[in-house]
Design a protein that fits this description.
This is DinB-like domain-containing protein. With about 170 residues, the protein is mostly helical. It has six helices and two strands; from the N terminus they run H-H-H-H-H-E-E-H.
């Protein structure tokens, strides 16, 4: 197992600044493009991260710590953020930063009481899930959406790169 709580926290602490550096001040074209069809744009991905901070990670950690296997997580609506899309990128990034800081403060406060990362609760789709799996997923979820954001942005220029397209793996 590679999971170490301090390493997960290192990554989780950096995501708001990473996104802020990447996205602040960009033209709307970068923020509103998507990968086609019903895919999300950059604004929607950041809004999804905010929704996760509010209703997913810390509430589920608390459920594992307080209710354990006697409790099934409520389903997470991965599309709930789509109904709240009036904010600009600076507002979204500020809200994400604030939510993440609050989440990490709560997590760090709980760390003193956590002596078993194998504690578990029931996921509505996966069944029994461990605390270390949830914490690992939180960190990898951030990386997934950072990757998604850069892929969305890269694909905006897919046709513009001409013959170099075959060398740019992000465009595949």
């Amino acid at each position: 197992m590679n999971f170490k709580i301090n390493e997960a926290i290192e990554l989780l602490e950096r995501t708001p600044e990473t996104l802020s550096r990447l996205l602040t001040g960009l033209s709307p074209g970068w923020l509103t493009c998507n990968e086609g069809g019903d895919t999300w744009n950059v604004l929607e991905v950041v809004a999804h991260l905010i929704e996760g901070e509010k209703v997913n990670w810390i509430p589920r950690i608390n459920m594992i710590l307080t209710k354990g296997e006697n409790y099934t997580f409520p389903p997470f609506d991965r599309f709930a953020h789509l109904s709240n899309s009036e904010k600009d990128i600076e507002q979204l990034l500020q809200e994400f930063k604030q939510c993440r800081e609050e989440s990490l403060a709560l997590l760090k406060n709980e760390l003193n009481a956590i002596n078993d990362y194998e504690q578990s609760a029931l996921h509505p789709e996966f069944g029994s899930v461990r605390l270390r799996e949830l914490l690992s997923t939180w960190a990898v979820h951030d990386l997934t959406h950072i990757s998604q954001i850069t892929r969305i942005m890269a694909k905006r220029y897919k046709k513009d790169v001409g013959p170099w397209q075959s060398y740019l793996s992000i465009l595949k």
